[in-house]
Design brief:
The protein contains one helix and 13 strands; from the N terminus they run ββββββββββββαβ. It is mostly beta strands and 227 residues long. Bound molecules: arginine (ARG). Arginine binds next to strand 11.
Length: 227
């Protein structure tokens, strides 16, 4: 049985997902750039079908603690459509997106409530950053070096959103990828915000992956994999 996860395209030929999603796919599996509705993927002229060449999980990913829950996917070819709604990867030392309450955006096709059914149309929600997440019920299950929390009662990502983006939008409209949907207990509960893999400490690991294309590794788009 396969799980549904979302990938974020970070350059025409690369995407980011959660490392815990990586085992569910492999070489040759399709990903659909520019998808909006799951049910209307076929016949949607905006959808560009791409294929996976390889997936590499973070070398320090821990599948028990979920530290460093990030993976990079290489596609067999570069996107011709150039979908790229994300402009930057968050940088170490940049506090812009890490003040308590800073509005961030999470997006995906995951369930609309814990145990509910998955969304057909891509959803997004504004979630407040919760950098002091050890003060929640997660306590030490939260690792501030590799994770960041965001969410509040009623606003959260949920099951099936894993691998999707948590991003900030600056005053000029540029988007910075801050996190990757990773885990949570239930969804949208006040003491249990969504937990995201932190992008900034993984940046040095992500960046050298695509060698020749490293210079173009600054764009990201929401993409989705299907079974
Ligand atoms: N692990 C889930 C997935 O695989 C993501 C759960 C996110 N939970 C939350 N409360 N934000 O899709």
């Amino acid at each position: 049985q396969r799980q549904m996860c979302i990938r974020d395209s970070i350059s025409p030929q690369y995407a980011i997902t959660a490392a815990h999603c990586a085992p569910y796919w492999g070489t040759g599996d399709p990903i659909y750039l520019g998808q909006h509705k799951e049910s209307e993927r076929d016949g949607d002229g905006c959808v560009e079908t791409m294929y996976i060449e390889s997936i590499v999980s973070h070398e320090s990913y821990n599948d028990w603690t979920l530290q460093n829950d990030i993976a990079v996917i290489k596609l067999t070819e570069a996107s011709q459509f150039g979908y790229a709604p994300i402009d930057h990867l968050d940088q170490p030392g940049d506090g812009t997106w890490h003040e308590p309450g800073t509005p961030l955006v999470a997006a995906g096709w995951g369930t609309l409530s814990s145990g509910g059914s998955a969304a057909d149309t891509a959803q997004h929600v504004v979630v407040p950053a919760v950098p002091d997440c050890w003060e929640t019920e997660y306590g030490e299950g939260y690792d501030p070096d590799t994770m960041v929390c965001a969410g509040a009662e009623g606003v959260d990502s949920c099951q099936g959103d894993s691998g999707g983006p948590l991003f900030g939008i600056d005053s000029s409209g540029e988007r910075t990828l801050v996190g990757v949907v990773s885990w949570g207990i239930g969804c949208a509960q006040s003491q249990y915000p969504g937990v995201y893999a932190l992008v900034s400490p993984a940046r040095a690991w992500i960046k050298p992956r695509p060698r020749a294309e490293a210079a173009t590794l600054h764009k990201l788009s929401l993409i989705h994999i299907s079974e």
